[in-house]
Amino acid sequence: MNKIIKTANKEAAQVLAWGEARGIETCFSRAEKLKPCPIGESGACCKVCHMGPCRLVGKNAEEEGRGICGATLPVIAARNLARMVAAGTACHGDHGRDMVFTLLAVADGETKDFKIKDVKKLYRVAGIIGVEFEGRPVNDVAKDVAVKFMEDFGRQRGEINYIKRAPKKTQERWRKWGIVPRGIDREVAETLDRTTMGMDADADSILNHALKASLANGWGGSMISTDITDILFGTPNPIKAEASLGIFKDDEVNIVIHGHEPSLAEMIVDVVYEKEMIDYAKSKGAKGINLGGMCCTANEVMMRHGIPTAGGFTNQELGIMTGLIEAMVVDVQCIMPSLTRLAKKFHTKVITTSEKVRMPGAMHIAFDEHRAKEIAREIVKTAIDNFPNRRLEGSRVTERFPVIAGFSHEYIEYMQGGRWRASFRPLNDAIMAGRIRGVVGMAGCDNPRVPSTGMHKFLAIELIKNDVLVVSTGCSSASCGTAGFLTPEMALENAGPGLREVCEAIGIPPILHLGACVDNTRILTIASAMAAEGGLSDEIGGMPAVGIAPEFITEKAISIGCYFAASGVPVIFGGESPVEASKEVTKIMTEVWFERFMGALHFEPDPEKILAMALDYIDQARDRLKLRKYEPGKFGAERVLMDMAARRVLERAAAPHAGVGGINES
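Predicted structure:
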């Protein structure tokens, strides 16, 4: 019998094997024991009222199935998906709101531990949302920006501020179909209202509003968070770091910052380098303090400070199983409740820091931006005090992989033309010439129900072989980083000839680390800038670009996929469809959304089929845009058959020149 491969990362597999030999439970063993309910998995179960749960099954469920209230299968499936979108939008919306509060505290002088590090980005954002900044004190501008963003959460009528960042044609599509969000909280609330029993009973109407709520995430909460994070902590530039479960050190205090919000993490980065803290660690027998990250907090501090990452979602338990972590400091999102139970087998302290996340068995040290550094010192000191309690037990990993991270919108623009000629023209030209076939945004979680990180690794390699530039965020970036895929040398070894040529010319990897999962919005602003640059498409829809979430888990991922689909990007999720039970809902999300917005949402468990589908979408987009046909290694001008009228025009233009025998025009 073949052994089941649970993770495609060999360092993770080593730790996992060590734990399994000792009977230690992890998400991988729980995934083996707990199989998904086939009815709920396919979207055919409704539990929004106490007459249910109603399960609509059978050969004729689509046409004849009814819940007790009379809701059809398409309505039930659409409700379920819309509620996932609402939850994901609420998650990222709260993240953005917390960043607005921090910016406001800085502007009001209520916190001395944070300051505005990127004034240029502040002014750029102010200009976009209509805040005057010329000749004004920086903190006054910051306050007005924060107040204007705060309005985006509670606005009842009108439009959120960042809608104007999208190409005009994309905005026109949104207005035509009534999906421009008014306020972030407003759309989340209405989604829940619409999907309660006795409300909206039209699947298309429900899904249309789900797109509206998702846009409140992509062009609202998440985009706000990304920009404020850049303003406060600096806009990322490429930086070298390391990735692996091998980042932990035997002779130092190891602290892991895990979650998604970067404010406390930034303070911990500062504190661990303070002489007083290092001396205190030495007094406890350690040689120093070693800080590492997990999940999206890792991406935040990696791309600004070069702090190493121990990986994505499925590595959090394995990190504790190394036996080397003194404290795992968590804030919000993707925190496994199993951590505290597992930590009891080792010496690790799990420290929660958000009032929104409490865990039995964890120590709670509440974060407050007004006392940020004081709290960070308390947390670091707690970890140091735990160092003498370390046991010898644990699975030690030593291998580490280099990573180049931190490719923001601003840096990608800068690297193509320098300070004075920054532009997206070279990228557009490379796509038009066929050197770059297209672009894929790879995002989402890593999932213990498949060989974890394996689909990310397979697709990343195969896409760059086919001259597709990959931009990655979140746990997809972690998956690529812990596989050693995020270096410029990767282009020389694996990329197709056209992509390799572009990467060598600019000096970039073929997979660009764009940051955390909220930073998917960088892809939206990049696509908008490419549309504004001209030569490809005058809107995001129709570009040779695809989004892929190979191992998605969370409701946040569904919300992200929907806002990309609404923005005009076909999106493919790896895994079974949460609306598979309804052919009507599936058709709406694929065919109808593509017709309206030029985006779509697909679900496909086979990675080879995901690859084929992505390349087909890219090639079809190239055909619609009348770009030269992609042929590996052939980047020159393409011969075009011309009609007689066009030939006469060219011949007249060439007439003054003697000896012109023929014309080859691209």
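Summary: The chain has 27 helices and 15 strands.
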